[in-house]
Amino acid sequence: MKSTEVKAFGAKTNTADLEQLQIDRRETLADDVEIDILYCGVCHSDIHTVRNDWGGSQYPVVPGHEIIGRVISIGKNVSKFKEGQLVGVGCMVDSCQHCQSCKDGLEQYCENGMVGTYNGKDEHLGGHTFGGYSEKIVVDQKFVLNVPENLDTKGVAPLLCAGITTWSPLRNWNVKEGDKVGVIGLGGLGHMGIKFAHALGAKVVMITTSPGKSEDAKRLGADEVLISKDEEQMAEHAGSFDFLLNTVPVKHDINPYIGLLKRDATMVLVGAIEPLEFHGGGLIMGRKSVAGSLIGGIKETQEMLDFCGEHDIVSDIEMIDMQNINEAYDRVTSNDVKYRFVIDMQSLKN
Ligand code: NAP
Ligand code: ZN
């Protein structure tokens, strides 16, 4: 199959810095959309994958799954998109399309395994897929999203992962007006969680380890801030939450958070992918649940983007050049980002 070389940034080992590389992009096939990448968000998952925190990373890793760009060319079967259109690509670029999950519009749970935007199996060129830290990408139209033109384009990029990953559980667990919702961890995902829960009419409590983020949390839409390290404050909120969204990226003690849930309420984990311990009694005494959630399907991602267009919601970002990515990674891991880094891909093209 024909392909073209493009510039990208990636890591050659799990301890290496990211550096400039050349990668191949396939020719635009009948169902494909070729996209000139304008911006790409920096997700904590990019760092986990580069560092091989979850195992199974394949190198070089070219991360990036919060992609915004403009259509350069389309294949002959593409009718949904046209040249010049503003589009997005999130965490997936393919799935089997025939299992029950795919039929239900939940491609992220594809029973035959969805193809990740990076570190997925590349069925076209062989090897593994390369993400959005690059000049261009070619994606099947089914996994391309339409981006509302009225939004600030730079702040839209993080919606493709941080946005949908928080939107999907809030919708699936039917968070509604008047519910008391706690968002645990004010980072990239957490700040979108606050914005969405607030927009859905919930009473939002930011649950954070960082007292210094209190003012920001309120500006972003939190009604209250709860410092999780303060046992007295935690006791005041015990048994009071209808829903908790836990975005903590590392192994941590979830028992204190379970204590915050009301009877029949659920805490959804989206961050920590590792063995966590909880006390059975904490769930049994109150019929509580701990659940998990992975990004969101294509249909609900489009719904989320349209909702953002209507409600003027974007991410709060700090723009960086591609060449500053290693410093940005250090800042994310040391909890120093407000609240998402976005790469200006022009810096790679110059
Ligand atoms: P992030 O920007 O680094 O934010 C994580 C936040 O968690 C931090 O800002 C911090 O907030 C809090 N935190 C950090 N270490 C903590 C600790 N030891 N104990 C308690 N809180 C801690 O990360 P992100 O990009 O939002 O991603 C969050 C996690 O979700 C990552 O693991 C990522 O891989 C995962 N993720 C999952 C999905 C999915 O589909 N399930 C999708 C995308 C990302 P405070 O300072 O407020 O405490
Ligand atoms: Zn992500």
TrEMBL record:
<dbReference type="InterPro" id="IPR036291">
    <property type="entry name" value="NAD(P)-bd_dom_sf"/>
</dbReference>
<dbReference type="InterPro" id="IPR029752">
    <property type="entry name" value="D-isomer_DH_CS1"/>
</dbReference>
<comment type="similarity">
    <text>Belongs to the zinc-containing alcohol dehydrogenase family.</text>
</comment>
<protein>
    <submittedName>
        <fullName>Uncharacterized zinc-type alcohol dehydrogenase-like protein</fullName>
    </submittedName>
</protein>
<feature type="domain" description="Alcohol dehydrogenase-like C-terminal">
    <location>
        <begin position="188"/>
        <end position="308"/>
    </location>
</feature>
<dbReference type="InterPro" id="IPR002328">
    <property type="entry name" value="ADH_Zn_CS"/>
</dbReference>
<dbReference type="InterPro" id="IPR013154">
    <property type="entry name" value="ADH-like_N"/>
</dbReference>
<keyword id="KW-0862">Zinc</keyword>
<dbReference type="Pfam" id="PF08240">
    <property type="entry name" value="ADH_N"/>
</dbReference>
<dbReference type="InterPro" id="IPR013149">
    <property type="entry name" value="ADH-like_C"/>
</dbReference>
<keyword id="KW-0560">Oxidoreductase</keyword>
<dbReference type="GO" id="GO:0008270">
    <property type="term" value="F:zinc ion binding"/>
</dbReference>
<dbReference type="InterPro" id="IPR047109">
    <property type="entry name" value="CAD-like"/>
</dbReference>
<dbReference type="Pfam" id="PF00107">
    <property type="entry name" value="ADH_zinc_N"/>
</dbReference>
<dbReference type="GO" id="GO:0008106">
    <property type="term" value="F:alcohol dehydrogenase (NADP+) activity"/>
</dbReference>
<dbReference type="InterPro" id="IPR011032">
    <property type="entry name" value="GroES-like_sf"/>
</dbReference>
<feature type="domain" description="Alcohol dehydrogenase-like N-terminal">
    <location>
        <begin position="31"/>
        <end position="149"/>
    </location>
</feature>
<keyword id="KW-0479">Metal-binding</keyword>
